[in-house]
Specification:
By secondary structure, this protein is mainly alpha-helical. The chain has one helix and no strands. Helices cover 93% and strands 0% of the residues.
């Protein structure tokens, strides 16, 4: 159970990172 939650948190964090990268790229380019 704890492992699943941890994996989910990592997944969310990765998605957020991708989103911010896209937003930054869109704003600058």
């Amino acid at each position: 159970m704890a492992m699943k939650k941890k994996k989910l948190e990592v997944k969310i964090r990765k998605l957020e990172k991708i989103e911010t990268t896209i937003n930054r790229g869109g704003a600058s380019g």
